[in-house]
Amino acid sequence: MKFICDKASLIEAINTVQKAVSPKSTLPILEGILLECNNGKVILTGNDLEISIKYEIEASVSEEGSIVLNSRMFGDIIRKLPDAPVLIESDENNITNIKCVNVDFNISGLLASEFPKITEVTRDNFIKVENSKLKKMIKQTIFAVSLRENKPVLTGAFFEIENSRFTMVASDGYRLAIRNETISDCGRTINAIVPGKTLNELLKIIKDDDNIVNIYFTDKHVLFEFDNFIVTSRLRDGEYIKYKSAIPSEYNIEINANVASFCDSIDRAALIINTETSKSPLKLDIKNDNITISCSSHMGKVSDIVNVDSSGGELVIGFNHKYLWDAFKNCEDEDVIMKFITERYPLIITPVEGDAFLYMILPIIIQS
Q: Is the pTM of this model over 0.90?
């Protein structure tokens, strides 16, 4: 294998595929990056057996071949090279020579044949969506994905596609985030649970533009194809929760609230809340056209009044301040509708118009 490429392109590729490399593994091959030269192209791949990322770069290939290099060492070497073209060449003994100006490294590699094979995903069941739409959908739901493994299906986001309707759903059992978008009609229904880890990595590498992402589904895997990337991931097994039945259909109180004002108030109240405990709920006292947001903890007390447009009555209800903050900071609208039933039923947050998103948050019972 022998090729010359631009240092900046190589660094971008390494930084990207490293997101799918196991930092510590009992199998040294999983700590490596696969480099492949064929048909005049260079492809770098990281694969931790759950998610794989391929990145194709422009290069001048003079000899085809493949090698696996330790991800950490390879990345550190390339980052510290001078800003000039890089020559990479490997021999039959898996020794790889890296040259750049006056710098000359020789490092040991591993056989490419030992690198785990990436599952082939057929290009049949798929949807098309703009980069910016997918990035926004992930950003506005990923915070609600569960981090606990006791319910594996909740550690992923539910993709529900029906014709031209694309819904992404996330829940950790205490809150629910739903994001809806219109896409090109795929002519079919697709349901899949994509791991939160995969979505977090996609969020880091998807650009905020109108280029198209092709998303292909099988029963066990999903493949995202865009720009120079191919990201393949296992899907979560199991049936997702019946989230629609959990959303109330009738409410006693509806409030039109300004998002920025609410975020500022929550941010101020958080200064006296011990984030390691849920014993200090944020209390919302709804009366007339005001919500008094207050909290009392061992660090002190805070009270803040937010002006709103309210209809339906009075209510005192408590919430985890972080859950409220996550929901409001991901509302891109200037104003939202907050819907309440009683102090024991969840809060629903929706747009003033349309159904682009819905956030549901379970309350914390306030002890009298």
A: yes
83 vs 40: which has the higher pLDDT: 83
Helix axes 196-205, 131-139, angle to 10 degrees: 130
- Measured from the Cβ of residue 362, the count of other Cβ atoms closer than 10 Å reads 16
Q: How far is CA 355 from CA 184, 250, 336, 348, in A?
A: 18, 16, 11, 12
Residue range 126-166, pLDDT digits in tens:
999 999 999 999 999 999 999 998 899 999 999 999 999 99
Collapsing DSSP states into helix, strand and coil, what is residue 269?
helix
* pLDDT at position 26 over 90: no
DSSP code at position 268: H
CA gyration radius, the chain: 25
Phi, psi of 49 (to 5 degrees): 80, -15
CA separation for the pair 254, 317 (Å, rounded): 14
- Residue 246 tokens read as 């959990």
Collapse the DSSP code of 96 into the 3-class scheme (helix H, G, I; strand E, B; otherwise coil) and give the result: strand
Q: 159: which residues sit within 8 A by CB, 6+ positions away?
A: 166, 167, 168, 190, 191, 192, 193, 194, 222
Whether the CB-CB separation of 156 and 196 falls below 8 Å is answered with yes
Query: Which one, of 287, 304, 307, lies nearest residue 296 by Cα?
Result: 304
Question: What stretch of H or E contains 179?
Answer: strand 175-182
Interhelix angle 71-79/7-17, rounded to 10 degrees, is: 150
Structure confidence by residue, pLDDT tens digits, 190-211: 999 999 999 999 999 999 999 9
Residue 277 pLDDT exceeds 80: no
Q: What is the mean pLDDT of the chain?
A: 94
> Which DSSP string corresponds to 205-264?
H--SSSPEEEEEE-SSEEEEEETTEEEEEEPPPSPPP-HHHHS-S--SEEEEEEHHHHHH
Dihedral angle sign, alpha carbons of residues 312, 316, 320, 321: positive
